[in-house]
Design a protein that fits this description.
Shape: globular
Number of helices: 5
Number of strands: 12
Number of domains: 1
Strand content: 25-35%
CATH superfamily: Bira Bifunctional Protein, Domain 2
Structural class: alpha/beta
CATH topology: BirA Bifunctional Protein, domain 2
CATH architecture: 2-Layer Sandwich
Largest sheet: 9 strands, mixed
Length: 238
């Protein structure tokens, strides 16, 4: 394996894409990497092929997703009501409970072979959170972590009115990641009213738009976040 290619990452902006279509694409990329790793086990070191790393950015039409450890009762809508609000629902194979994706939310799916970076899933999650925290700081917002809770929060220190600005949920197979984060930029927060977000009933959800009182250019926020991810993971764009 050529160590010089270890941190190369292919970036793709998928735009507004159906949730299932994006999930299928992630599964395809992950399966290709798992196949390479399986083949490499049969080959001498100088013949082994390097896995490929990807960072996918996108937005989704209105959709609710429920993770493996989630509870269906945290979706507060019937099938008919889901149709009424123009949303779909998927049970998926990431960690975490229920969350919402929709237009104005920046969703990131890193398909990374952590053997190129560091084999520590806890550190991986905290590094994703750090990229969001730094992006919030770019816009003058103090964001951080709340002990015992995944994601990025505002008012994380005094917790008088803690509110989540980014949710995280990942899957890791053979040290290859999929799924990722959902960063509320210009998100319609009313859609969170139809669920118990991440199974947490006593804390609010927010967005950059809500906090700053103005709509933000999605491309600009994406560029800021992409830069922080590149720095923190020492990525080189392929």
């Amino acid at each position: 394996m050529n160590i010089l290619t270890a941190h190369k990452v292919h970036f793709e902006d998928l735009g507004l894409i159906d949730y299932q279509q994006a999930w299928d694409y992630q599964e395809k990329l992950l399966a290709e990497n798992v196949a390479i790793k399986s083949q490499n086990r049969q080959l001498p070191l100088d013949s082994q092929k390097s896995t490929a790393n990807y960072l996918l950015f996108c937005q989704h039409p209105h959709v609710y997703t429920l993770g493996k450890s989630g509870h269906l009762e945290n979706l507060l809508l019937t099938e008919t009501q889901l149709q009424d609000v123009g949303a779909t629902f998927h049970k998926i194979n990431r960690g975490g409970d229920i969350t919402y994706h929709g237009p104005g939310q920046l969703v990131g799916y890193p398909i990374l072979d952590l053997e190129h970076f560091f084999t520590d899933i806890h550190r991986y999650m905290r590094t994703l959170e750090e990229a969001i925290i730094l992006t919030c700081a770019d816009y003058g917002l103090s964001a951080g972590r709340i002990e015992g809770l995944t994601g990025v929060w505002l008012d994380f220190e005094t917790q008088q009115n803690p509110r989540k600005i980014c949710a995280l949920g990942v899957k890791c197979s053979r040290w290859i990641t999929m799924h990722g984060f959902a960063f509320n930029v210009n998100t319609d927060l009313a859609y969170f009213g139809h669920i118990v977000p991440c199974g947490i009933s006593d804390k609010a959800v927010t967005s950059l738009q809500q906090e700053l009182g103005r709509e933000l250019p999605m491309d600009e926020v994406a560029q800021q976040l992409k830069g922080h991810l590149a720095n923190l993971f020492e990525m080189e764009w392929a």
